[in-house]
Every structure is written in structure tokens, then in C-alpha cells.
Amino acid sequence: MLIHPQFDPIALHLGPLAIRWYGLMYLTAFALFLGLGRYRLNARPDLGWRKQELDDLLFYGVLGVVLGGRLGYILFYKPGYYLQHPLEIFAVWQGGMSFHGGFLGVLVAMWLFSRKTGKTWLAVTDFIAPLVPLGLGAGRIGNFINGELWGRPTDVPWGMVFPQVDLVARHPSQLYEFALEGLTLFTLLWLFSRRPRPLGAVSALFLIGYGSFRFLAEFSREPDDFLGLLTLGLSMGQWLSLPMIAAGVAMLRWAYNRR
């Protein structure tokens, strides 16, 4: 049995300013996106992207992630609470971001970017799909450092006690998601996108891969105490992942049939 290290959520103090690990993980995610994007530009000049476009794309993506992630958490998970406490909507330092909301926010941001640049929407999403998973993995490391989103009770040898919760050994589900949604999904998408693929195929694989990995990981993750398990014993994260998988399968068939 392991014990969670109980990291200090604040990485360092700069006078009155406290820099939190979770914020640093967001910065790491954006830096990984930019670095991988520039490498991809050099490796695949046939894609027809310029460095300035990548920088603009990151700006749009940051807005989509932050605004969509926050609004998604409010609408999907705690609409009643924030309706009663509207000012807390802006208290992002207290946590509360939804991947699925951030994903929808990024889709809208990419649509706006595609209109500005004249690129097709799917060409944009195909380009960014392999750049995203390592950033998602960084976010899960942030969850682990904060000791949040812990797993369900277990008796596996690597079960971990989160003292801020109880003295029960639990799955370190944040690390499972780091391995699946971060490392494994990145490897699949990076290798798949090294060769030219039909329009929409890379985006489709992202939808299928993330939705499937998140669905599986949720079986080891403790459901939110204010929601619990929903219909059929599935969590909110699993119900939100099912449409992603279905849309990905449909898009993949469309991409190859259209070709």
C-alpha cells in the first residue's frame, strides 16, 4: 500500500503571488502544444501551415480550453450550485474544469480560427489532435499533485491512501488517466498522423481514443460525491464520453468512404 505524498499545491511564492502546481501544468500543456506543433510543421511541410498560424492557433485554443472548461463544469456538474452562488463562477483558483466542456470550447475556437484563416475546420482539428494528449497528461499530473479526483477503494498492491480523504487504499486513477489519455493516446495519434490520412480521420481517432480511454478509466475513479453514479451505474464522465466514441466511429467511416 502506498501513501499519497501530500504535495504542497503551491509550487512557489513570488512576494504576495502564489504560483500553484496546477497552473504550471496548464503552462506545461500549452508549451508542449507549441513545441510539438513546430516540430510537426517541420516534419510535415505538405500540411501547408505557417509558424505564425500556429501561434495564433494557440491563442484561440487557450481561450477555448479555459472558457469552455469552466462553463462545462458549471453546466454539466454543478448548475444548481452556481445558480445560487453566481460570483463563484469566476473563482477558477478553487478548481472546477471539465474536459468535455473544454473540448467543446476548443471546437468552437477552432471553427473561429478556420474562418479567419480560410482553412477547413477538419483540417485544423486534424492538425491539433496529436498535439493535445500530452497536455491532457500534464493536467492529470496536476490532479495527482493536488490529491484530487482520487480513485475508488481497491486491494491492488499499488493502491494508494489519500489521507485528506480517508485511510482506505484507492486506485491512483489520476495516474491511470495520465498513462491512457496522455501517453498512450499521444503515441497512437502521433504515429497515425505521420502519414497523410483522409480529411477528418485523425480527428476521428482522437474522439474514439479519448472517449474509450476515459470511459475505461472512470471505472477506477471515485464518482463526484455531489453526483454519484447515474443511469446504468455509469458516471457523468462516462456518459459524456459515449457520444465522443459514437461521433468518432461515424466520422472515421465518413472519412474513408469519402476518400
From TrEMBL:
It comes from the Bacteria. A 1,2-diacyl-sn-glycero-3-phospho-(1'-sn-glycerol) binds at residue 140. It is a multi-pass membrane protein. It is an enzyme of class 2 (transferase). The keyword Lipoprotein applies. Pathway: Protein modification; lipoprotein biosynthesis (diacylglyceryl transfer). GO terms for biological process: lipoprotein biosynthetic process. PROSITE patterns: LGT (PS01311). Keywords: Cell membrane, Lipoprotein, Membrane, Transferase, Transmembrane, Transmembrane helix. The chain crosses the membrane at residues 19-36, 57-77, 89-113, 120-141, 175-192, 199-217, 237-256. Catalyzes the transfer of the diacylglyceryl group from phosphatidylglycerol to the sulfhydryl group of the N-terminal cysteine of a prolipoprotein, the first step in the formation of mature lipoproteins. Belongs to the Lgt family. This is Phosphatidylglycerol--prolipoprotein diacylglyceryl transferase. It comes from Sulfurimicrobium lacus.
